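Everyone, study these two lines:
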Amino acid sequence: MESKQEITIAALSTPEGKSGVAVIRTSGSQCSVILKKVCALKKIKPRTVKLSNFYDQKLKIIDRGLILFFKSPLSFTGEDMLEFHVHGSPIVTRKIMKILLSIKNVRSAFPGEFSKRAFLNKKIGLSNLEGINNLIHADTDTELQVASLQAFGGLKKKFDEWKKLFIEISSLIESHIEFSEDDPEIVQKDIKSKIKVLKNLIEVSIVSSKVFNEIKSGIPLVIFGPPNTGKSSLFNLINNNDRSIVSSVRGTTRDIISSTNDFNGLKVNLIDSAGLHKTQDTLEKIGTQKAKEIIMDSSLLILVLSPDKQTDESLRLISQIIKDSKKKIVVFYNKSDKKEGMKQKNLWTKKLPNLKKIPYLEISCKKEIQNKEKYQNILDFIYINLLKKKTDRITYNPFTEIRHQECLKKSKNHLIYALENIDSLEIVAEEVRQSKIEFEKIIGNIDNEEQLDFIFKTFCIGK
């Protein structure tokens, strides 16, 4: 088994491929040997940028660039660290990495191993590192804001607030157990009240964490309706390109087509589904069945209607879907440029009165693809009526990971059990203590090596 004190790790920290600059990092006790082998330097002043040649084993120059040295413990990992800023040529980075890995007690870093060493050396908290990882992978403004909050102190602030509540509750319990002259009913009422406050805070964070993870993956948003109403045209309009085939032939869309979109900082998986109708065509049947399944599974829907597609079958299917109170729906009355399109809202609401309660927009996909203002109105309409509440429910909560949710759930369950046994303060004291232990695991009170490896393996190599 390798000694962590002796092993030095090395990795390319920037993406592979051609670029202006690439960064190679090393961390561990062999940095002085690396400096001599790669740069032909005996020493370098810490935290100072130095221009240097980089040599191969035969002392031939591979490249020239910048080198930085961070002396333990004043480094990211808490160990000696070197950073090579070289030209981003794949052959240059491969050659330098080959030289590094030829040195005794130097090996390639595992994913997240620099971060893991920083955590084990108490240089940074586990949740802060998870925040930095989220920052690296953020695709939208919302993800960026939440990740920044988590990475740069937002979780500690919340942790300190909750820790104070834990201490207050524990102190009250211990005080009453030791000095039982106080009225037990008053004491229990006070303890119960504070435990409820803490439990409610945890519950709000659990909900917020779930919402954020949905946003991180992409919120499913399904476009549905009868065939040839303009579903694919709307899908293409939102995407600003022809991703989905548009044709006057019924049943053109036979499979699920999707795209990832940014709606005001929210990542959305926009899905174009097959038209809802009866058909004898085998492929169309599969497509419509898939459409029905994905509509049933989705809570956010865009219904596209047009004046020429009102059939008994489409009315029946749409009626079933819009009656579901768990679904949020908006309606686009398409083909408003046509003469009959001007009155189509009344035609549809006469047959389906429930449509009157649903937010709607009258559009013409053919015309509005060239109109930037109307295009933006469509995006804003979707965001305000379907997506905005998702952002509101996040409340920029720093508990972003699945493991955070699990710890919060366990912490909450201990508090529930404490409330159920409020007459026995010894049980309450132990449950509050266990609740606090689960909560502290979020910050990083973890001594299980396998659990730590599982957390860090999702990080980038070189981070």
User: Anything to note?
Assistant: Confidence is low (pLDDT under 50) at residues 243-254. The first strand starts at residue 8 and ends at 12. The chain is about 50% helix and 15% strand. The two ends are 23 Å apart (CA to CA).
